[in-house]
Amino acid sequence: MIDLGFVVAPEWDLLRLLAVPVFGWAAWRDVKSRRVPNKTWLPLLALGLLALVWQASSLHATGGYRWQLFVRQVAISLGLVVPLAYAFWWIGGFGGADAKALMVLAVLLPTFPSYFLAGGAEYPLVQTRIGVFSFSVLTNAVIVAAAYPLALALYNAVRGRFSSAMAVGLERPWSAVLTAHGQLLERPDGLTRRGLDLDALRMYLRWRGLGLADLRERPDYYRDPATLPDDPNPPTDGAVGAGDAEDAAAEAASGDSAGAASDDSSGGAAGDAAGAASSDGGTPRQDPDYDDPWGAAAFLDALDGSAYGTTPEDLRDGLDVLAEEEVVWISPGIPFIVPLFAGLLVSLAYGDLLFSLLGALGLV
């Protein structure tokens, strides 16, 4: 045990606390960019293995029941939590960062830590009979994640935004999709729980070299696959870049000015022809029934991989909506690593929420 004055704890449990701010940073990074570098997890895995070996050496020397319990807890953490993380990733329930974070937690915190704060209180306050801490973090994270739709629905209700998507989405101006992660929750025929992935949208726009305001200004023109560029740009991975916030503001402003200009112009066929002639994207056909509207299939076929599972129909429907609507419903798409980090904090400070609830109901 090490006495730091304000906290007394075993050496390996104090070592494990170093991972907490890293998990916080990873959650923040995943919210901002939906990208967590793989190099984040290797040092945490090494830290977990070091703490695990240190704890095992100490307990093995004493032997007895505590050693046997430790072995069972580690076996359950590695044998249950790690496969669960992989399974949820495999079926699409987790992102890669979410699965890696949970796997690292299974190695880092297989047993309940023990911290004695000044005054004698021991944390976590509520421990389970099995004592697998990584599993408690997971169940706490699930409870936090389940509360999120309720909070989102309340937020929308207070603002009078009643919709079938109010528990999963937010209403935002069209330009917000350029800096948001998640999904567009609208199709031309109404709301949907699974629409166009916004990272895939940015990939498409970058591939064509288009701004969303350009597309909204002349949707009939750009809907024609004949306007696809002969030499497309790299689509990137769709991540929001450093300048995307400025681009979104500029796109919104240009969209407003374009709308005002179209109201003042003579319009008509002559205006459409002039617009087409001013573009080097090709000459659109008059027939609106194209084999590949928006060039959606051509874009996806040109990629080395997939655009986050996006289909041509997803892309076409999303572009049809964004070409017309001023305000759209989008999913914030909160990655699971965020409730996982919240579950870690709750677990360290309080313990297992589910076990506490079941105890209050007399079920354990």
In words, what does this structure look like?
The structure is a single chain. This protein has helices at 11-16, 19-33, 41-62, 64-90, 96-108, 133-158, 198-208, 212-217, 219-222, 244-264, 268-277, 296-302, 312-324, 337-349, 353-360; strands at residues 2-3, 7-9, 115-117, 122-123, 170-173, 183-184, 186-187, 190-191, 327-331. The protein has 364 residues and is of the alpha+beta class. It folds into two domains: 2-150 and 336-360, Four Helix Bundle (Hemerythrin (Met), subunit A) (Up-down Bundle); 170-262 and 271-331, no CATH class. The strands form three sheets. The chain has a four-stranded antiparallel β-sheet. A three-stranded antiparallel β-sheet has the order 5-9-6. β1 (2-3) and β2 form a beta hairpin. α3 (41-62) packs parallel to α5 (96-108). The protein is elongated. Mean pLDDT is 85; it is low at 258-283.
Short description:
InterPro entries: Preflagellin_Peptidase, Preflagellin_peptidase_C, Prepilin_IV_endopep_pep. Residues 20-146 form the Prepilin type IV endopeptidase peptidase domain. This protein is 55% helix and 7% strand.
CATH topology grouping of the largest domain: Four Helix Bundle (Hemerythrin (Met), subunit A)
- CATH class categorisation of the largest domain: Mainly Alpha
Q: Count the strands?
A: 9
The number of domains: 2
Helix and strand pattern: EEHHHHHEEHEEEEHHHHHHHEHH
Helix-strand blueprint:
Layout: E1 2-3, E2 7-9, H1 11-16, H2 19-33, H3 41-62, H4 64-90, H5 96-108, E3 115-117, E4 122-123, H6 133-158, E5 170-173, E6 183-184, E7 186-187, E8 190-191, H7 198-208, H8 212-217, H9 219-222, H10 244-264, H11 268-277, H12 296-302, H13 312-324, E9 327-331, H14 337-349, H15 353-360
Antiparallel strand pairs: 1-2, 2-3, 3-4, 5-9, 6-9, 7-8
